[in-house]
Amino acid sequence: MPITVAFFDTKPYDREYFTAAAATHGDLELRFLEHRLTENTVITAQGAAAVCCFVNDRLDAKILTRLRDAGVRHVALRCAGFNNADLAAAKELGLAVTRVPAYSPHAVAEHTVALLLTLNRKIHRAHNRVREQNFSLAGLVGFDLHGKTAGIVGTGKIGRLTAEILRGFGMRVLAHDPFPDAVWAAQHRISYVSKTELFAQSDVISLHSPLTPDTHHLVNEPTLAVLKRGAYLVNTSRGKLIDTAALIEALKSGRVGGVALDVYEEEEGVFFEDHSDHVLADDELARLLTFPNVLITAHQAFLTREALSEIARVTTENLRRRAAGTPFLDGTQLA
Questions:
Q1: Cα separations (Å) of 184 from 59, 179, 189, 237, 325?
Q2: Whether residue 61 sits in one domain with residue 118
Q3: pLDDT tens across 100-131, in order?
Q4: Are 89 and 151 in a shared domain?
Q5: What's the total number of domains in the chain?
Q6: CATH no. for residue 177?
Q7: DSSP for 90-112?
Q8: 160 labelled catalytic
């Protein structure tokens, strides 16, 4: 009998890649839902043995309890982050929780550098001008990355790849991580330093840390105060690494030279949706969008064919393994 899986917060690309991943086997029945998993929508998981969730789905103790009571036994996160899931409650309820820890670090690292290049060379602004037949170059001056200093906060797979790409541009690279990889750093001529040193010396800072109690608001008023004046900040990791109110003040004062974000502190209910026909209710996001030196994409760093294929492959394989009573893929189980 097929295993019914309720997929929450799905978009056309989710349906395309998961349908393809499940096509070779007839043991999964995929139920695609467009709404997010919340206290009001959890009832739609009724009849499913598993749910597949994304970054903005709610998985607190109350919702997990209702999922368990509805017959769900497996929560499959189709993402690397899991800060939206109460893992302690899941364990207590006997719910298995899995994720996709490394779908394509290249996708995120490459998007990070694309954001930096676009922000620095004002490509987005130039593109809009040319489409209006304005070929003026005024206000489009950038700077050479070659010879500048880049600071990488967090040297997991994505952070290391980003650092290596920036070394290829001829940049000096500093890194900060609670678990430094000395062998890798020596191989690529990268220096580990304290967070304060990194913020004080870097012309460009790129965030690649997971969201934990220790990294929440990693970028805040005190860290921005020691930032090298005019430095660029790039974040493709987790929105809550940055205190948005403090960032806005640093932009207003000129302390921060430019910001490129693929994630935002309060992106739930905003990112992944079309809000073009009404007023944006988030005042801080609306304020960020008024700065000419701020570039924002809507959490799309993962969005490559390779990454989507790998997310679908790992997730569907774990769904089958749970149903068969066999171990999950290495490194994917959280609870």
A1: 36, 12, 8, 21, 38
A2: no
A3: 998 999 999 999 999 999 999 999 999 999 99
A4: no
A5: 2
A6: 3.40.50.720
A7: HHHHT-EEE--TTS-HHHHHHHH
A8: no
The most distant pair of C-alpha atoms in the chain lies apart, rounded to whole Å, by: 65
Q: Give the residue from 154, 291, 172 showing the smallest Cα distance to 219.
A: 154
Q: Which domain holds residue 308?
A: 3-103+304-324
Structure tokens, 307: 């990454």
Query: What confidence score (pLDDT) does residue 123 get?
Result: 98
Please identify which of the residues 36, 74, 99, 299 carries the catalytic annotation.
299
Catalytically annotated residue among 78, 267, 310, 321: 267
Task: Give the DSSP H or E segment for 75.
Answer: strand 74-77
Whether residues 93 and 213 share a domain: the answer is no
Nearest to 5 by CA among 68, 59, 73, 88: 73
Catalytic residue status for 167: no
- Is 229 one of the annotated active-site residues of the chain? no
The total of other beta-carbon atoms located within 10 Å of residue 106's CB is 15
69, 218: one domain: no
Provide the whole-model pTM: 0.93
**pLDDT of 65-94, one tens digit each?**
999 999 999 999 999 889 899 999 999 999
Same domain, 72 and 150: no
